[in-house]
């Protein structure tokens, strides 16, 4: 993994799911489990397309797609419960975690996620990096989620670093857009782990 972090970069911001944590397969199985109960199906393509959106936003899309009247809060609660039940299956994405650890103490580090704080905190803790980040900005902390820049801009604000001096590490299209919309440098981490999701 070769990446140059030049002296213009004053802070690093990491997405969580699919970037620091190999959690996407568990998310997919959780959505499938909830879908079987509520009359919708959820594919790997859906997972990739909606990565970065909040759970409630995803449920809204599903409701429209399948002409269902789903309660977003209830569906998200059930999906989170299904995910946390299998949290032990979530592993760190080692090349990305190593980079975070290499720069810890040299540059401020944030995590910015479309997931909720309660779940993101448990993911970060389970892969051993919760105590290595300076701040976490989750879906609870902003009104507009990826592809809007708010998540990453909030990270920069909390760290006290101008957006143009931040480098974002992401694995999803909505996240790339959010980083670009924030005026930040962005790195696609997927080649670092050979596209394995």
The largest sheet, given as strand count, sense and whether it forms a barrel, is: 5 strands, parallel
Strand content: 5-15%
CATH topology of the largest domain: Rossmann fold
| CATH architecture group name of the largest domain | 3-Layer(aba) Sandwich
The structure class reads alpha/beta
Strand order of the largest sheet: 5-4-1-6-7
The run of helices and strands is: EEHHHHEHEHEHEHE
What form results from the Cα inertia axes?
globular
Query: How many β-strand stretches?
Result: 7
Look at the structure and give the CATH class of the largest domain: Alpha Beta
Helix content: 40-55%
The separation of the N and C termini measures 17 Å
Number of helices: 8
Task: Provide mean pLDDT, rounded.
Answer: 95
CATH homologous superfamily name of the largest domain? Answer: HAD superfamily/HAD-like
Rg from C-alpha positions? 16 Å
Stretches where pLDDT is under 50 for at least 5 consecutive residues are none
């Amino acid at each position: 993994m070769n990446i140059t972090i030049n002296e213009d970069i004053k802070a690093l911001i990491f997405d969580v799911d699919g970037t620091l944590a190999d959690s996407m397969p568990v998310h997919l199985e959780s959505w499938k489990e909830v879908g079987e109960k509520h009359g919708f199906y959820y594919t790997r393509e859906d997972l990739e397309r909606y990565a970065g959106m909040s759970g409630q936003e995803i449920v809204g899309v599903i409701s429209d797609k399948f002409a269902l009247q789903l309660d977003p809060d209830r569906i998200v609660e059930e999906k989170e419960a299904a995910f946390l039940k299998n949290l032990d299956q979530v592993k760190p994405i080692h090349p990305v975690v190593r980079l975070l650890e290499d720069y810890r103490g040299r540059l401020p580090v944030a995590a910015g996620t479309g997931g909720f704080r309660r779940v993101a905190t448990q993911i970060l803790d389970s892969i051993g990096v919760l105590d290595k980040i300076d701040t976490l900005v989750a879906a609870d902390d902003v009104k507009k989620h990826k592809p809007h820049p708010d998540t990453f801009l909030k990270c920069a604000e909390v760290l006290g670093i101008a957006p143009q001096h931040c480098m974002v590490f992401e694995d999803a299209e909505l996240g790339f857009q959010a980083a670009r919309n924030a005026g930040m440098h962005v790195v696609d981490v997927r080649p670092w782990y050979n596209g394995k999701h």
